[in-house]
Design goal:
Number of helices: 5
Helix content: 40-55%
Shape: globular
Strand order of the largest sheet: 3-2-1-4-5
Distance between the termini: 32 Å
Strand content: 15-25%
Low-confidence stretches: none
Largest sheet: 5 strands, parallel
Radius of gyration: 14 Å
Length: 134
């Protein structure tokens, strides 16, 4: 089974909508399942539910076949995204260009070489698809 993971903000921002649209296209093209991921930070007061996330996505894009909605709690968005990608053995992760920069900075804290694209390809065997949402 092929899996595409797409992290999004809630409520959906302009960038999240563009990233999600590309993830839907990639999932359809690859005949893949889609995981829509939101990271709910421990240090923030708002709690997002899977139901709220699903409703927001379906309001924008309609019902999505072969999709699941995941809300993870974490201290760092980037680390939580990487945990989800690795835990689910995702084949691709679709992220906005802003998120890629944050992922690289997070990797820089843990590794000498913060090349997130190469790390995901080599260690997790995952494609990284970047969306420039203007």
């Amino acid at each position: 089974m092929t899996l595409v993971v797409v992290p999004v903000r809630y409520p959906l921002s302009k960038h999240s909508r563009a990233t999600l649209a590309e993830a839907i296209r990639v999932a359809e093209e690859r005949d893949a399942d889609l995981t829509v991921l939101h990271v709910d930070l421990y240090q923030e007061t708002g709690e997002v539910t899977r139901t709220a996330l699903k409703r927001a996505v379906e309001r924008e894009f309609g019902p999505l076949d072969r999709s699941r909605y995941v809300v993870r709690r974490g201290f760092l968005v980037e680390e939580t995204i990487l945990d989800e990608v690795a835990a689910e053995s995702a084949d691709a992760v679709v992220v906005g260009s802003k998120q890629v920069g944050r992922l690289r900075r997070a990797f820089g804290r843990f590794l000498d070489d913060p090349d997130v694209d190469r790390f995901l390809r080599e260690k997790v065997d995952c494609d990284v698809i970047t969306v420039d949402a203007k």
